[in-house]
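Continuing the batch. This is chain 6 of the set; chains 1 through 5 are on the previous pages. Same settings as before, nothing changed between runs. Recording input and output for traceability.
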Amino acid sequence: MSFDGEQEGYPFHMGDELFADAFSEEVNYRFSSEELKISQVFSANLGVAAQVWDAALYLCRYLEKLDLKGKRVIELGAGTGIVGILAARLGAEVTLTDLPHALPQLQKNVSANRPPSGWPSVTPTVLPLSWGLDQEQFPSDWDLVLGADIVYLSDTYPLLMDTLTHLCQEGAAVYLSSKMRREHGTPGFYDDILPQRFDTQIQCCDPAQNISLYHATLRRKEQMQ
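Output for chain 6:
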């Protein structure tokens, strides 16, 4: 199955009955310079981590405009890994993170998308990261911190803020792509919460899809002395 448009759907776990019968699907995603084969395992265990969301594809298309060669990149809430995998195919040194239950799908997709000639930089690393709990096990010297459609549960916003603050201590640029769901407080995160510690601006947006891509950098006074 090939795909170069957008996938729509409701991105929140509704209980085990949502995926009573687990199934998987492989989709080829074509970008201007790369084509990725992404496996999506729809099951109650994976929930929202199973699917490639529109905001991830939007971020992927933006990343193609950047020079990522040699950049140190970490992706939060990587899900299927499509964003981080594309960054690695474009030459970045990538660490993909998510909750432990999502890691087998992530690792499978990383392995499936190894270029025939090998990764242009290094093989992407797949690691567990629970926001607000173990971010200090990770370094703070990234060039880019990426996230696609990870802003949708208000209870996680303080944990995400603590994680971003730690990862950006040495000047990383943050790129967060989100479907702007008012019913889940997504605009409030970008308007009121993220600016408390970060200088934030809309990098670009797609009104038709209700997706915005934000760029943020940690303000100097928030950095550890």
